[in-house]
Amino acid sequence: MSKTRKEMIAETRAKLLAAGRHAFAEQGYAEASMDDFTASAGLTRGALYHHFGGKTGLFEAVAMQIDDEITERLDALASRAASPWEALVESCVAYVQMALEPEVQRIMFRDGPAVLGDPSSWPNASACIAFVTGQVEACRAAGVLSDVDPEAAARLLNGATSDAAQWIANAKNPEGVSAKAVAALRAMLDGLRRAD
Fold first, then answer.
1. pTM of the model
2. Transit peptide: is it a keyword of this entry (predicted)?
3. Nearest-CA neighbor of 75 among 61, 59, 60, 87?
4. 158-177 pLDDT per residue, tens
């Protein structure tokens, strides 16, 4: 049975995303050759321009794909947590530690800000803030947090974890920096807890 036009478009887009993702992860944005990754997908530059407008558009789509996967991982982690507090802490820590994963490190935390600009202006930024705000609200409802504005706390936590992840990703010793960042993050989070 022949494929519909919609199926062919989706297949072409998926091939370009996979080829671009591989190239950006392995070589970095600057070194990734459009000709090489379109050829590896069995496609042309024209297909790349048609679907993504160029290399930067493809990179943004890859970054958003990875971000969606990060969100799914954090949602799953939070859903398994024993309490709202544990969900908040472990989600923040997991996000920071993802900067040790080579693909995430290079695409999201090293090349992402250089290519796409300030992460707080990325298309997914408001969803990230909403996720953390929901976690803060759950902690407040459980009586775990001091009286703090949920959105303000979420924005501060988002900024702290994003900056920590970029610090780790660009460090000469990412594992050592990660250990320091996670310890400081846990101490900072503890400072938000309601005193008993």
1. 0.90
2. no
3. 87
4. 999 999 999 999 999 999 99
